[in-house]
């Protein structure tokens, strides 16, 4: 059966690409557009509000059409759901870090990571699909995310001990998740492999975001190996109300769930693995 969609429509959201504009500048533009854009865009701009959890996210009423908005065209705003903006904040990469994005295209989260890092450091972004890697490169160019190095490659085939990965501080894993079985299979493999890929780093963070029923089970499957490598589950968004389902995995309270019918954005799941005294990210 086709997915009937959420019971209540979600607010439309747009992430301010802080590589191009501050949130204050974006709000100023939206509320008082330049004269040539005023007639078409001024009314919409009055409805923008900063999301209470994510400081770089603007919310508009459901159905607001921003596709041909000048700030979207220029890459200053990225049309992105709130749930899709949570993993980069959870990972909270710092300027100067080397970060891996294992499943990167079309690059919404990669460009978000670049913005959070102020384009300082580097993001090695893997994408195995040739056409999608071009979209990733296009979006990196549009958003001015120059610290992204997009690679057309299978992340699972990389050589984890290669010197270029020795300094990796964090990895974001956002595998395809159209069916829960697929996501389960992929995450089952990706998470332990990815944890292993960070072995050489001083400390490391791994965040995963997937839509799948078996989210907690996936984490449960890799937990022992992650612990053995020195990782623990950290607490992204401590104020967030919906956590992992208790009883399915040890430490379910550390996991973040997003319910598409209750939370006003896409269904999502975030697990943040942290090593060596790292406090974990999250802005809520
Ligand atoms: N993170 C992206 C974003 O926020 O825009 C969305 C990623 S999408 C859910 C998953 C992507 O991972 C797909 O483009 C898929 O081709 C890619 N992918 C899946 N397995 C991969 C692998 N082993 N190596 C590299 N890319 C992979």
From TrEMBL:
Protein name (record): phosphoglucomutase (alpha-D-glucose-1,6-bisphosphate-dependent)
Domain SAM-dependent MTase RsmB/NOP-type: 2-276
Family: Belongs to the phosphohexose mutase family.
Binding, S-adenosyl-L-methionine: 103-109, 127, 154, 174
Parent sequence residues shown: 732 to 1015 of 1048
């Amino acid at each position: 059966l086709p997915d009937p969609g959420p019971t209540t429509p979600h607010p439309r959201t747009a992430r301010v690409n802080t590589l191009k504009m501050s949130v204050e500048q974006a709000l100023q533009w939206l509320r008082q557009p330049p004269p040539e854009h005023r007639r078409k865009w001024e009314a919409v701009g009055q409805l923008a509000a900063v999301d209470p959890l994510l400081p770089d996210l603007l919310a508009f009423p459901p159905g607001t059409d921003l596709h041909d908005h000048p700030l979207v065209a220029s890459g200053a705003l990225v049309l992105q759901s709130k749930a899709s903006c949570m993993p980069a904040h959870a990972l909270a990469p710092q300027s100067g870090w080397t970060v891996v994005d294992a499943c990167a295209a079309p690059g919404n989260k990669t460009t978000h990571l670049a913005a959070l890092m102020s384009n300082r450091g580097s993001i090695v972004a893997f994408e195995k699909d040739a056409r999608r890697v071009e979209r990733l490169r296009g979006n990196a160019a549009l958003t001015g995310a120059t610290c992204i190095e997009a690679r057309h490659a299978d992340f699972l085939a990389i050589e984890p001990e290669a010197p270029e990965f020795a300094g990796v501080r964090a990895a974001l894993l956002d595998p395809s998740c159209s069916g829960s079985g697929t996501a389960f299979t992929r995450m089952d493999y990706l998470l332990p492999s990815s944890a292993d890929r960070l072995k050489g780093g001083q400390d490391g963070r791994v965040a995963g975001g997937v839509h799948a029923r078996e989210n907690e089970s996936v984490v449960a499957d890799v937990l022992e190996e992650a612990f053995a490598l020195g990782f623990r589950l950290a607490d992204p968004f401590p104020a967030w109300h919906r956590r992992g389902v208790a009883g399915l995995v040890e430490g379910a309270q550390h996991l973040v769930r997003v319910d598409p019918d209750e939370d006003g954005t896409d269904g999502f799941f975030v697990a943040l693995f942290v090593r060596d005294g790292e406090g974990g990210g999250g802005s809520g």
